[in-house]
Automatic annotation (TrEMBL), chain A:
Cofactor requirements of the protein: [4Fe-4S] cluster
Highest taxon of the lineage: Bacteria
Source organism: Ligilactobacillus apodemi DSM 16634 = JCM 16172
Keywords assigned by UniProt, alphabetized: 4Fe-4S, Gluconeogenesis, Iron, Iron-sulfur, Lyase, Metal-binding
The protein's enzyme class: lyase
Annotated metabolic or biological route of this protein: Carbohydrate biosynthesis; gluconeogenesis
Protein family: Belongs to the iron-sulfur dependent L-serine dehydratase family.
Protein name: L-serine dehydratase
From TrEMBL, chain B:
Keywords: 4Fe-4S, Gluconeogenesis, Iron, Iron-sulfur, Lyase, Metal-binding
Names of the cofactor(s): [4Fe-4S] cluster
Source organism, top-level taxon: Bacteria
UniProt KW Chaperone keyword: no
Alphabetical list of SUPFAM superfamilies matching this protein: Serine metabolism enzymes domain (SSF143548)
GO BP terms: gluconeogenesis
Catalysed conversion reaction: L-serine = pyruvate + NH4(+)
Pathway(s) where this gene product acts: Carbohydrate biosynthesis; gluconeogenesis
One Pfam family here: SDH_beta
Domain Serine dehydratase beta chain: 8-118
Lineage: Bacteria, Bacillati, Bacillota, Bacilli, Lactobacillales
Gene Ontology MF terms: 4 iron, 4 sulfur cluster binding; L-serine ammonia-lyase activity; metal ion binding
Family: Belongs to the iron-sulfur dependent L-serine dehydratase family.
Source organism per UniProt: Ligilactobacillus apodemi DSM 16634 = JCM 16172
Protein name: L-serine deaminase
Length: 275, 220
């Protein structure tokens, strides 16, 4: 992947590596911003402050799952809350799915004491799987639903997690295939058309699913359906999804009575987006 | 892994951007930037026509300020992006947004058509945001000439005095750039505008060489 980028961008290895480091730094800053203090809040008030709540909960020691999973949840929420608040994030592969990969990456950073170079390598591995998905299917909610965003991100995170934890390339592909298979059919139904509800919490399922798929792959489990075929299945499903469930804010959770009320409340009056 | 719209790892891990949506915010900035590069003059009026998902959700996704930010030449990670509409209006630029029912004229759910004008010049750029901040430009009207590029960037526009840009093609070929589609349209005064769809961005040196043999060059 690194070689391909060096050739494509006509840059040196160091330049490409450092650019990925910058992406990582943006991810770190967003996760930190979302978990510090009481967190960040979006201009609509629909989302915010929940990553900080999760941090306090994790610190209380009362969590049902272990520290790694709780940490993934917290960082995933934090990144998407910063995104909803129109803060600076790194799209991975999209802004709506920008929390999934950081959730997994920062959880593994803690669990496996990853070095910065290992974290950068994680992102290159994730990008390889993402590029195959983007070029052979789709990564936009408007064309393929949320399976194309959080589903792709979850697969990318699973593959990179397998690789960084010592799995083989084949195991990484199995991790990707399992993670994406689990999220096929996921629709894009944002309330009021905003990247807030359910996007912020759907990234959590992307992260936790990626960790589970990576663990399954490292344990030697197989998806049975190969990664390439899963990608094409996702594409076919995406094409058959009705427009109401592809980022128009017209179906699913967006069309519930509460979702509709939120939309009326937000767009019925002047919305101050100038933050 | 060849082919496709997504060519750089930073199309996938990136862009670094102001939220909330890569297709509706970062992609909108990119479509705006394409129009900005082509127009290249002081602007008087911007008209944005939205279709499908863009028409339904542009308000919530910040598409309005994103596209105007691009039109003003800002990058996706510019922290002034959320204030772009206000900034444009303060510069005396008239800004109009239209939502359209029905399907996109360029056949994509995330479609925006940008018209930029001043007293002497008018251009129209029809772009779509295909996800993750990556865009396509599928229709262009520049100085009275109408082009229909394949969509994926890079797209090169150059102005010359002849209908066959032999020199330009030689420079591109020397740089191992594939031309995926090309068209040339004549203008008054024997000038031609060439539109070339390329497989990757030419080396800066090659762009300089092309500039030397043409009277205008824009690379999107």
């Amino acid at each position: 992947m690194l070689e391909q980028e060096i050739q494509y961008s006509r840059s040196s290895r160091t330049e490409v590596w450092n650019k990925m480091k910058r992406q990582l730094d943006v991810m770190k800053a967003a996760a930190k911003r979302g978990t510090t203090g009481d967190g960040v809040f979006s201009p609509t008030g629909l989302t915010g402050g929940e990553a900080a709540k999760m941090r306090k909960y994790r610190e209380s020691g009362q969590g049902l799952t272990d520290e790694t999973v709780l940490y993934a949840i917290e960082n995933s929420l934090a990144t998407n809350e910063v995104n909803a608040a129109m803060g600076l994030i790194c799209a991975t592969p999209t802004a709506g799915s920008s929390g999934t990969i950081p959730g997994v990456l920062f959880a593994l950073e803690k669990k496996r004491a990853l070095t910065e170079d290992q974290m950068i390598a994680f992102l290159f591995c994730a990008s390889a799987f993402g590029m195959v998905t983007a070029n052979n299917a789709m990564i936009a909610g408007a064309t393929g639903g949320c399976q194309a965003e959080v589903g792709s991100a979850s697969g990318m995170a699973a593959a990179a997690a397998v690789e960084i934890c010592g799995g083989t390339p084949l195991q990484a592909a199995e991790g990707f295939a399992m993670a994406l298979s689990n999220l096929l059919g996921l629709v894009c139904d944002p309330v009021a058309g905003l990247v807030e509800i359910p996007c912020v919490k759907r990234n959590v399922v992307g992260s936790v699913n990626a960790l589970a798929a990576a663990d399954m792959a490292l344990a030697g489990l197989e998806n049975k359906i190969p990664a390439d075929e899963v990608i094409l299945a996702m594409k076919r499903i995406g094409k058959r999804l009705p427009a109401q469930l592809r980022e128009t804010g017209l179906g699913g959770l967006a069309a519930t009575p509460t979702g509709t009320k939120m939309k009326m409340k937000i767009f019925g009056q002047e919305l101050d987006l100038n933050i | 892994m060849s082919g496709g719209n997504y060519k750089s790892v930073f199309d996938i891990i990136g862009p670094v951007m102001v939220g909330p949506s890569s297709s509706h915010t970062a992609g909108a900035v990119a479509i705006g930037q394409a129009a900005h590069k082509i127009f290249g003059e002081k602007l008087k009026k911007v008209t944005i026509d939205y279709y499908e998902s863009f028409a339904k959700t542009h308000q919530g996704h910040g598409t309005d300020y994103a596209i105007i930010a691009g039109v003003l030449g800002m990058e996706t990670d510019d922290l002034r992006v959320p204030r772009a509409v206000e900034i444009a209006q303060k510069q005396g630029i008239e800004v109009i947004f239209n939502e359209h029912e029905g399907t996109s004229p360029i056949n994509h759910p995330n479609t925006a058509i940008i018209t930029l004008e001043n007293d002497t010049k008018k251009i129209k750029v029809s772009g779509c945001s295909i996800g993750g901040g990556t865009i396509e430009i599928r229709d262009l009207e520049v100085e009275g000439c109408h082009f229909t590029p394949l969509g994926p960037l890079p797209i090169m526009l150059c102005w010359t005095g002849g209908n066959d840009p032999v020199d330009i093609k030689a420079h591109l070929s020397h740089d191992n750039i594939q031309i995926r589609k090309e068209s040339a349209l004549s203008q008054a005064g024997g000038r031609y505008i060439h539109e070339l769809d390329l497989d990757r961005m030419p080396h800066p040196k090659v762009l300089d060489q092309i500039k030397a043999v043409s009277s205008g060059l824009i690379c999107l």
